Amino acid sequence: MAAQEPASAAAPAPAKKPNVIKRLYLWVLSWAETPYGTPALFVISFLESSFFPIPPDVLQIALSVARPKRAFFYAAVSLVGSVAGGVLGWYIGHALWESLSGFFFEYVPGFTPERFELVRAKYDEHAFLAIFGAAFTPIPYKVFTIASGACAVSIQTLVFASIVGRGARFFLVGSAIFFFGPKVKEWLEKYFELATILLVALGAAGFLAVKYLL
């Protein structure tokens, strides 16, 4: 008679699920394997300008690595979607901020009352530079787009600063594909957790720069 395994034998431990941000990152990246990668890039670029936490650079890089000759086209898609999303952010701040501020402070990464008030205080003096800095760097751009509407920054200033800053950022990413190709994607996949920490640190450092240098 075959011996039975002890009833107390430990069941295999369930696989650890990635954190929410990593799951969102993988979901964004998965669009590169579908025929809808380009429209997904536009939508993600649009949404990231007001509330979505994953930057469009992730999908832009994946699409560009697969088709390097279209790297600048994907940069343009990111730029148009992001600036259009910035206009939505401006409208949220201009017309809806009083009713939606609680939602953003509680649920949207990058939003805190302290950061929002810091941006509000700086807009009177350096609106263009503040928006440009947020558009180009890891500082949460969404905070600046919404604050610009709440602080009555002109939409023309927002659009112009966003085109310059986001254009420089996305076209720099597109240019990098020509020099590094698939290595960029491999690095992101291997060091994503570290990259996330660094981006958060850079964003915090950026807010310090806004506070003390602008």
Number of domains: 1
Give the percentage of residues in beta strands: under 5%
- Radius of gyration using CA atoms only: 20 Å
Bulk shape: globular
Low-confidence stretches: none
What is the H/E order? HHHHHHHHH
Total of helices: 9
First-last Cα distance:
81 Å
Largest beta-sheet characterization: none
Oligomeric form of this entry? single chain
Tags for this entry?
single chain; 214 residues; mainly alpha
What does this structure look like?
The protein is mostly helical and 214 residues long. The protein has one domain (20-212). Helix content is 75%, strand content 0%. The protein contains 9 helices and no strands. Helix 5 crosses helix 6. The mean pLDDT is 80.
List the helices and strands and how they pair.
Blueprint: H1 20-30, H2 37-48, H3 57-66, H4 71-107, H5 113-136, H6 141-150, H7 155-180, H8 182-190, H9 192-212
Helix pairs in contact: 2-3, 2-4, 3-4, 3-7, 3-8, 4-6, 4-7, 5-6, 5-7, 5-9
Structure described in brief:
By secondary structure, the chain is an all-alpha fold. It has helices spanning 20-30, 37-48, 57-66, 71-107, 113-136, 141-150, 155-180, 182-190, 192-212. It has one domain.
